[in-house]
Amino acid sequence: MKTKHALMAMLLAFGLALSGCSNSAPAKNDQSETSEDPAKKSEGVMTYQEYMDADVDSEVVIETYVQNKQSWWEDKASLYTQDPDGAYFIYNAECSQDLYDKLKEGTKIKVTGYKTEWSGEIEVAEGAKIEILDGNYIAPVTNVTDLLGNEEELLKHQNQYVEFKDMTIEPIGDDNAAYLYNYDGSGEEGDDLYFNASKDGKTYNFVVESYLTDKDSDVYKTVKELKVGDTVDMEGYLYWYEGPNPHIIKVSVK
């Protein structure tokens, strides 16, 4: 689940700071999959643009598709969701264990709740209600590597599933390690992993958030094996907290 208290402390110079339904993050397809037009909305349901234009604290009704989910706790769950027009983060929605188990990747849902904004992040506020609908859509990955450093353009991809190609692992922390447990190195096995990666001479900070991809996930294990100088491709969800902060779910070393 999105750990707001940790995120408020974690931002570095340009914070590019992500257990899902399983210990490992789901594999994504290069092509979207759908049994219907995933952009079509039912009567009374907002388009993505209408949702973005709605006032903060106003009621919103959206139809979208689950792409990934954070851990279930006390009948609440947070979801990364997307349709062809944009992405939505659903924070701590009402969700029984039975409902959570049914929310597979690509599942179409109707969400009724209130729009909120937190440090630049647009999301559906805690307490939203979820209804499963017929339909399936898996969003394709969007390459945003060339947009690094351009917050205005990256903002257009808020909460989307994105990738970063041909990044170089840079040292982090006082010991010039390849990664840290927590943003300041104060953590231990099982905590979030922070690491630096550069592109075109500029360095950015990334995180593998243990609530989405825990210590037994492939990405967690891969980051622990990284070496300074490695060239990597990465995939994740472009969460926004005072700037773009991708929650990384996949790292491939070249």
Gist?
The protein is mainly beta. It is built from 5 helices and 13 strands.
How is the topology of this model organized?
Elements: H1 4-10, H2 48-53, E1 59-69, E2 76-83, E3 86-94, H3 97-102, E4 107-118, E5 121-124, E6 129-136, E7 142-143, H4 151-154, E8 161-170, E9 180-181, E10 193-199, E11 202-208, H5 218-224, E12 231-240, E13 244-253
Parallel strand pairs: 7-8
Antiparallel strand pairs: 1-2, 1-4, 2-3, 4-5, 4-6, 8-10, 8-12, 9-10, 10-11, 12-13
Biggest sheet layout? 7 strands, mixed
Instruction: Return Rg in Å.
Output: 17 Å
Strand content: 35-45%
Number of strands: 13
**Count of helices?**
5
The unreliable regions are 1-27
Helix content: 10-25%
Average pLDDT metric: 88
Assign an overall shape.
Answer: globular
CA(first)-CA(last) distance: 30 Å
Summarize the helix and strand pattern as letters: HHEEEHEEEEHEEEEHEE
Structural class: mainly beta
Structure description:
- The protein is mainly beta.
- Mean pLDDT is 88; it is low at 1-27.
- The strands form two sheets. Strands 7, 8, 9, 10, 11, 12 and 13 form a seven-stranded mixed β-sheet that branches. Strands 1, 2, 3, 4, 5 and 6 form a six-stranded antiparallel β-sheet that branches.
- It has helices at 4-10, 48-53, 97-102, 151-154, 218-224, and strands at 59-69, 76-83, 86-94, 107-118, 121-124, 129-136, 142-143, 161-170, 180-181, 193-199, 202-208, 231-240, 244-253.
- It is built from five helices and 13 strands.
